[in-house]
Design brief:
Structural class: alpha/beta
Number of strands: 12
Helix content: 40-55%
Radius of gyration: 25 Å
Length: 307
């Protein structure tokens, strides 16, 4: 009788364990569904081999607790993070290698919704069995949205709190600290090896300056489309901020010099005479600051309202 009871107990235990295993398996196989920034409905099981075709998006994936199988070459530029050892470089951001992604067994590819070369790859990747999703994170709110999606995929809500909610609190604190202060007029410039452009309040730095109460002289006018030193002199902003883009920063500096700074009128601008012509670091103001958004806001506030 004892032997019979023992056998029954063992059998019940085995059935129970089997049921638990099946339950766990069903959870792991369940799809997480979301809508990406191009409006595509994406159903995704927990990905095992992830390729991210943008350095900034790769950082958000890491901040969400994700692991990387492959990234594009721009991820190795001057970002605020290091690419994990063993991650495969699959080529330039605008031309990631589909062949490499397939050979690496990539099952989920994260791409930019703003790069035409990325959006054109969707059909090819999906036919190869690689699920795709497209994102944009040009503003803090967009960053939060992408981080939320990524942490939902990884199951790391704690990292959304750390790298999202807490950063939001930091930003709000910075904005509150300058509330009611004198509004500054600003000009944001972005210089590459090809040209210099004025950026309005929809740009990365411009949006932060707007949140800090600044008036951007490129808003609502032709300056963003047609850079004119005459127009800059006429409006004479309190501050001029510049970021350099591209691999050849020296060339970008030379283009800025040739376009604006060599003109004698440049030296007569109030921002130049008062030491308020500021070169901003690429890591925070050209690349997306991501978890360092709060630090970027604080740095701008310190410059604008230095005692």
């Amino acid at each position: 009788m004892k032997i019979f009871l023992s056998a029954v107990i063992l059998l019940c235990t085995a059935i129970l364990l089997c049921g638990c295993e099946k339950s766990a398996a069903s959870v792991s196989q369940a799809e997480y569904s979301f809508t990406d920034d191009l409006g595509y409905e994406v159903g995704l099981s927990t990905p095992q081999n992830v390729a991210v075709c943008s350095g900034s998006l790769a950082e958000i994936w890491l901040l969400a607790g994700g692991e990387l199988r492959a990234v594009t070459a721009d991820a190795y530029d001057d970002h605020l993070y290091e690419v994990p050892e063993g991650t495969v470089n699959i080529g330039k951001m605008k031309s990631p290698s589909v062949e490499q992604m397939i050979s690496l067994g990539v099952d989920f590819a994260v791409l930019s919704s703003e790069i035409a070369e990325h959006t054109s790859l969707r059909g090819t990747l999906e036919k190869a069995g690689i699920r795709t999703a497209f994102f944009c994170a040009d503003s803090f709110d967009e960053y939060l949205s992408v981080l939320k999606t990524f942490t939902d995929i990884t199951g790391r809500s704690d990292l959304y709190e750390k790298n999202g909610t807490e950063v939001r609190k930091q930003i709000n604190g910075v904005i509150d600290s300058v509330s009611g202060r004198e509004r500054k007029t600003v000009l944001c410039l972005r210089s590459s090896s090809m040209a210099v452009h004025a950026k309005d309040s929809t740009s990365l730095t411009g949006a932060m300056l707007k949140d800090l109460g600044c008036i951007n002289i490129a808003d609502g006018g032709s300056l963003a489309d047609n850079l004119s030193l005459e127009a800059i002199v006429k409006q004479d902003p309190d501050f001029i901020f510049v970021t350099f883009m591209g691999a050849d920063e020296e060339k970008a500096r030379q283009v800025l010099d040739d376009t604006l700074m060599k003109n004698p009128a440049w030296a007569e601008l109030s921002a130049v005479k008062n030491g308020r012509f500021v070169i901003l670091p690429k890591a925070l103001f050209h690349y997306k600051p991501n978890a360092k958004w709060g630090d970027a806001y604080q740095q701008l506030a310190d410059i604008l309202y230095a005692e």
